[in-house]
Amino acid sequence: KARLLIVGGAPGSRGVVCSASYEARQHGVRSAMPITRALRLCPQAMCVPVPRGACGRKSREISDVLHRFAPIVQGASIDEWYLDLSGTEALYRGAPLDAVAHRIRDAVRAETGLSVSLGGGTHKLVAKLAVEFAKPKPGTGGTGVYIVAPGEEGRFLLLVPLGDLPGVGPRLRGRLESMGLR
């Protein structure tokens, strides 16, 4: 049975969607969308408030696991981190980066009960965009890990819609599309 879930504010509130189940996303619900609009798109969804205390605790638990795997861990938000694995090749006995990423993902799940997705690349922007390809959304074949190999950044970026770039919101995306840019 499909689980239509929207995490954010209460119905009728002025809040925004913090997260949504993949099933709700299939109805067009997205993060940062006003709750009222999300419920118009998916009226049968259950709307739940953000459990802030629990989120903070889980974020710290995930961060603790990540710090065991990488010498440099930079938090970008409550649910986003950048790991610098440079110089760890000997530590991981030359294992390919995707194998190391799967080890990290497995450890986070085993120790926190939460599933994370990991994107990798030679640059933070590439890694951030790669995470979307990693997510195991229904029908995508995502495994939770997606690594862009050095030298493949240009080819990878051709797969990314301009609207997925950080800082490109709906208005700019519309303007870019009106100029034939996607």
Quick structural summary:
This protein has 182 residues and is α/β, with parallel strands linked by helices. The chain has seven helices and seven strands.
Write the layout of secondary structure elements.
Blueprint lengths: L4 E4 L10 E2 L1 H4 L9 H7 L4 E4 L2 H18 L2 E6 L2 E5 L12 H16 L5 E3 L3 H11 L10 E3 L5 H5 L12 H9 L4
Parallel strand pairs: 1-3, 6-7
Antiparallel strand pairs: 1-2, 4-5
Helix pairs in contact: 3-4
Distance from N terminus to C terminus (CA atoms, Å) equals 35 Å
What is the approximate shape? Answer: globular
How much is the radius of gyration in Å? Answer: 18 Å
Number of strands: 7
Estimate percent helicity.
Answer: 25-40%
**Proportion in β-strands:** 5-15%
Tally of separate helices: 7
Which sheet architecture does the biggest sheet show?
Answer: 3 strands, mixed
Mean pLDDT score: 92
- Write the element-wise H/E pattern from the N-terminal end onward: EEHHEHEEHEHEHH
Structural class: alpha/beta
In terms of per-residue confidence, which ranges show pLDDT below 50 for 5 or more consecutive residues? none
Assembly type? single chain
- Strand order, largest beta sheet: 2-1-3
Question: What would your notes on this structure say?
Answer:
It is a single chain. This protein has 182 residues and is of the alpha/beta class. 38% of the residues lie in helices and 15% in strands. It is built from seven helices and seven strands. It has helices spanning 22-25, 35-41, 52-69, 97-112, 124-134, 153-157, 170-178, and strands at residues 5-8, 19-20, 46-49, 72-77, 80-84, 118-120, 145-147. The strands form three sheets. It has a three-stranded mixed sheet. A two-stranded antiparallel ribbon has the order 4-5. The longest helix is centred in the first third of the chain and has 18 residues, at 52-69. The radius of gyration is 18 Å and the shape is globular. The relative contact order is 0.08. The mean pLDDT is 92.
